[in-house]
Specification:
two-stranded parallel sheet; 12 helices; globular; alpha/beta
């Protein structure tokens, strides 16, 4: 049975906010791990840096790839997910993408599910330490759903189910998709569960500023791209063309979905961070890493680590000030 909450349902907040027995009485620290697909490997570097400076969060809240890395951390599997990420190659990444010819997404996600089940087995969210919360979105209503109890694998699958790419996940009668639609950087969830200090990781910090207005763009010209003919190639090569853009062709299906999705997340994240800013915002500069370039984990982890270490003094000062 999954424990669902949304932003308007905080009846269990008191219980969730209570310090665990034996934990020293200090300000509770929340860590909000944002969405960003392949750029999310940077979360591993951030967690390594926090550990190095002696910061262990009391609650970890993850959206999308943030839910994947955050749950691994809370389950004591950070070493395993880092080793897995560093072993990925472009070929291996494509091998995990099982094309779906029916249903609600381009990929079924079954291969990834089997991998998660191998690692997590029957782990339940409520048994993790630190406390973990997974952010998802209900497809039919747009409700922001916080999963804090129940099977871990299904919750993670729902949190990264990008609409159009992965099938929605049915949990307790709700069709759930990627939490980034409503809360890309879940600072508010950390606050709701009693965090007095919130450290947030924004994987899109260097794309902020996108979306200016072009006042006078000409509507004529020779550079009008024509749709490509139906592919006759084998599935693997067709899929690769969809995932990896070429300047000579129109963007592939997945690129269109991801880029449009990224714009939406950027707008939502700006608004939500302005209304409920974290105490510390870590912003790895990851714009050069494509959303499906999961094979570039080493680079992303290093950027995340260095970005967090730059904020080390500030983090220590904030934690000390709060006591």
């Amino acid at each position: 049975m999954f424990g669902f909450m949304n932003g308007n349902q905080m009846q269990d907040q008191g219980a969730a906010s209570a310090p665990r027995p034996g934990r020293r009485q200090r300000s509770r620290i929340g860590l909000a791990l944002g969405s960003g697909a392949a750029r999310g490997w940077a979360h591993i570097g951030v967690l390594r840096a926090l550990d190095q400076i002696g910061i262990r969060p009391d609650i970890v809240v993850g959206t999308s790839i943030g839910a994947v890395v955050g749950s691994c951390y809370c389950a004591g599997l950070l070493d395993d997910v880092e080793a897995f990420a560093r072993r990925l190659t472009r070929r291996k990444v494509f091998g995990f993408l099982d094309v779906n010819f029916s249903g609600g997404g381009l990929f079924t996600g079954n291969k990834m599910t089997r991998l998660l089940e191998t690692e997590f087995k029957d782990r339940r969210i409520e048994d993790l330490d630190p406390t973990f919360v997974c952010v998802t979105t209900e497809l039919s209503t747009g409700h922001e759903i916080w999963i804090r109890r129940g099977g871990l694998v299904s919750a993670i699958r729902a949190s990264y189910a990008i609409p159009g790419l992965f099938q929605p996940i049915l949990i307790n009668g709700r069709w759930l998709v990627d939490g980034a639609i409503v809360n890309p950087i879940p600072v508010s969830v950390c606050r709701a569960f009693g965090a007095e200090i919130v450290i947030a990781v924004n994987l899109s910090s260097d794309v902020f500023g996108r979306g200016t207005i072009i006042h006078d763009h000409p509507g004529d010209g020779p550079d009008v791209a024509e749709p490509e003919a139906a592919a006759t190639d084998e599935t693997g090569r067709t899929l690769q063309r969809q995932l990896v853009d070429s300047g000579e062709r129109p963007p592939g299906l997945t690129s269109v979905v991801i880029e449009a999705y990224n714009i939406i997340q950027d707008r939502i994240a700006r608004s939500r961070l302005a209304g409920d800013p974290p105490d510390i915002l870590v912003g790895p500069r990851l714009g050069r890493i494509g959303h499906f370039e999961f094979h570039r984990a080493e680079e992303a982890i290093d950027v995340g680590y260095r970005s967090c270490m730059k904020s080390a003094v500030e983090i220590e000062q904030v934690v000390k000030a709060f006591g």
